[in-house]
Here is the input.
Amino acid sequence: MSPSSPAGPAVPADALPGTAADEDGFTPADGLLRFATAGAVDDGKSTLIGRLLHDSKSLLADQVEALEQASAERGDDVLDLAMLTDGLRAEREQGITIDVAHRYFETVRRAFIIADTPGHAQYTRNMVTGASTADLAIVLVDARHGLTEQSRRHAVLAGLLRVPEVVLAVNKMDLVDYDEQVFRDVAAEFAEFVGHGCTAIPLSALHGDNVVERSAAMPWYEGPALLEHLEQVRIADDNSTMDFRMPVQCVIRAPERDYRGYAGQISGGSVAAGDEVLHLPSGMRSRVSSVDTADGALVSAQAPLSISLRLADDIDVGRGDLLCAAANAPEPADELSATVCWMTAAAPLRPGTRLLFKHTTRTVKAVVTEVRHRLDVTTLSREPATELGLNDIGEVGLRLAQPIFCDPYERNRLTGGGVLIDETTHATAGAVLITEANPGTRS
Here is the structure.
């Protein structure tokens, strides 16, 4: 999270080395920004996203007309901007978010992908899905209520998922008369909970205060509006500096062209023609003869680009295998220590529970060997536990039927994460963040 003061302005962009401000003194950050909204139900996440899209002129005329008509049919006096992201019929009828709604928009300064995640505790699994690939998380808090158990849980999950940047959006400031002290109290409570400062912005999503434009209703706030911050925030691209990793998704064959390529998304580092790579599990080495994409061959590619690699040697490579840097490859592991967010009410997670574990493009059978502790999301303390219930987060031990090739989650979010799947229903049962992997004994 950013160490900036909760009520102070962000660091001016022109103070950053190697940047140049435009005519209004603003310097855009480079690249696409993926961000997720999080927080308790009714804190205004969908309304905030709708306001961002509406006030940034990112909606087509027919979308605005449809929104006006739908709002009128519901008897609303103002546009119900939440309906722009609450696309399911059940969501519109209940006024809540159930699924993760993804939206794309761009300004002249940056492009964005938004994951609007649900606030209800029973849909915490969807929040994990939306935040797992995010560069930034916006944790919304109702100014009247401060931190709730669910907003604390989402803040904890954002930290566990190692989302690089977190913004605290103190919403519904209009309902507390834009009181500066209320904002400062909530920001201080959040900073104390997470253990460090972060960027905090007071706003009213309903009225658009400090969402796209700075609000005259809060002259005491000297920081940027939310969109300003999103346009200028810089996210470190840690994946590109890691060791090369590419789980193989599929094999592409074109016999008439004598073509055989191994397709997948780069999960870490970079690769170029001529690089030596290691194939796992065989342990065979080869050199990259070509880095291909749908638009043609590249000299090199880096995470998170999806590519197809051709190798100089004939190696038996298939889905679930790993191509990686020969100099620093992961060891096989079939005993894992992991942080698990349990996502199903069907049954608690207990020692002896048998599941499927999906890791990158490989799925293996797994059994829970022990539940070591559960995390109290209110105090962040570890409690002794023998099982994990719905939405519990805790440390567990897993034994795999076949070894996998992984990294600790803190080192690589893609090769260090996975999901637990119910063997019978094939429903997602838990999210896994690998903390430690022990060398396999069955390889």
Q: What stands out?
A: Residues 36 and 131 are 6 Å apart (CA to CA). The longest strand covers residues 362-375. DSSP finds seven helices and 23 strands in the chain. The two ends are 40 Å apart (CA to CA).
